[in-house]
Amino acid sequence: MRRGKYGFDAPLPFAGLVVGALVLLALTIVSFAYDVAPAGVAFLLGGLYTLASAFSYAYTTRRGKFEIWARELDDLDGGERVLDLGCGRGAVLMAAARRLSKGYATGLDLWRTKDQSGNRAAATLANAEAEGVADRIELVTGDMRALPFVGDSFDAVVSSLAIHNIGTAEGRAEAVREAYRVLAPGGRLLIADFQRTEEYEAVLRGLGASDVRRRDLGWRFWYGGPWFATRMVEAYKR
Fold it and tell me: Rounded to an integer, what is the distance from CA 25 to the centroid of its chain?
């Protein structure tokens, strides 16, 4: 059972879905009240569709992503050094730390609240205390494009819905290159995102990474529907 408070991913788009659904349903009532049935039906269908998208978004951010990442991290044997890029309030960071009996997990972020509600280092540390893993994590404030770590420092590097926030293709490519640089030989890289994953895959192939693949993570990781499906880019360092 999770004991931490992990906020809401990108709260503004979710709020937009909820408000949009309410407006459409209100227009449905008005349309039927004035006997404009075709418009009422259209507004009703649009409202239900938008409401379903909001429920999908809420499920993913509050439950679905935790289930998916738990499955992805089950291969950890307990002694690894794990880096979480764009860790936010620590959903993935804590999941990794719970699986580490001898290793440690490092979370790096710029702590921007537009990417996640209440995103600040103090909230992440509080979650680590609540989850009982404070002795196995450390937090670093930094930019994914210029990681403050020497090469080959981590046995696993993970990132969840973070790299797409970098505004340029070159910036995103640099973040992927940095993730690969600090990954130790034989280490595993996992990048989950709902945008730009084909870019990440191409960069890793260009770097000579092994076993590079991009796969769909299924409906539990939809942010509103299949058009915002999250995909995982997985690779290993030779």
Answer: 31
Phi and psi of 227, rounded to 5°?
A: -75, -15
Q: What count of residues does the chain have?
A: 238
Nearest to 163 by CA among 86, 57, 72: 86
Which residue ranges make up each domain of the chain?
Answer: 11-61, 76-236
Tokens of 8: 């809401």
Query: Is the pLDDT reported for residue 1 higher than 90?
Result: no
Residue 181, judged by CB atoms within 10 A of its CB (0-12, 13-18, 19+), counts as middle
HSE (side-chain half, CA atoms, 13 Å) at 88? 24
Classify domain 76-236 at the CATH topology level.
Answer: Rossmann fold (3.40.50)
The candidate with the shortest Cα–Cα distance to 223, out of 109, 52, 91, is: 52
Q: Indicate the residue type of 95.
A: A
pLDDT digits (tens, 9 = 90+) for 101-120: 999 999 999 998 777 777 89
Q: Check residue 185 and report its DSSP letter.
A: E
Find how far residue 208's CA is from the centre of its chain.
25
For residue 7, pLDDT beyond 90: no
* Furthest-apart CA atoms within the chain: distance in Å: 69
